[in-house]
Predict the 3D structure of the following.
Amino acid sequence: MVTRDRKEGEKLEALDRMIAEIAGDVDSDDEQLRAFRQAFEDRIAMPARGYVIGEPVLMVAVDYDGNKRRGLTARCRRTDGAEYVVALCDVVLPRASEGARYVAAYRRWLNVEPYPAEPQRSARPGRQIKATETEDGIDLGKPVEVAVLAVKEKSARCRLLGSDRVITLRAGSLWEVLPGADPDDPFDDPIIRANDLRGAGNRREAVKILMELCQADLRCLDAHSHLGHFVFDHFPQEAIRHYEVGVRIGELSLGNAFNGVLSWSLIDNRPFLRCMHGYGLCLWRLGHFDEAERVFERMLWLNPSDNQGVRFLIDDVKARTPWEDRENE
């Protein structure tokens, strides 16, 4: 009798063979992402029926714009004809389809669950809404003026100006914010611009860009993490301030009761995890071993795949090995 675990193992081995076939001849993440995109273009018929967060869609194209932080994207068409772009790993295709195998291989390459649960289409009829319209019928394709009546931790009650209508606005993930990016230009990323400037020796201009991001919106955790990176090597006392701000803002978004997972494969989780990693390293460098241990333990809980290699550091922290001794090994 073939056990369930053995069947699952055989499925994963098959996906590993697919990954090797698709991207085994190239080394960098950029080249492997381009190889995956080409595989979808060559082998998967489009459009393909699927689901995004439970809603039926047609996946009409798979693309990669060169941004490794974003990865592969899928252009999807809703039943009302509106098209939008989502992360490919968020698209669920019918399990028996060839496209589902390739999405599973890509998800496996990302180190996330290859086969998410296939959603059931709701039988409840609903009004088709415009791409820029909320379920409340508010058109977000143009500016909406509101008066804030009350604010709670992650929501705000507002009144639409010029009417008696009251709505509630709720925040999603608070570290996805990237002010200053051009939504019509996928290559326009202020974080990447800052890194490029730093690499070219223009550190002052790079720091200026990151500080402007923070001034525009303190929730831009990637700006905090990169400001910490810029000074980590020589000024850990300064770096820790940047990292800690990012950690504390992220914790406000999560709330005290959060006990879930923040997978590194979901790109919007990475700024918070970068801040935590830098914060833990600074605590270690400054001799705060107990706090560093708690941060690293928390990271292993939040991201069990440990893409940042905390498991290779935590034993030295627990053993109270000074940072300098580890660096000199």
Remarks:
- The domain at 190-327 is CATH 1.25.40.10 (Serine Threonine Protein Phosphatase 5, Tetratricopeptide repeat).
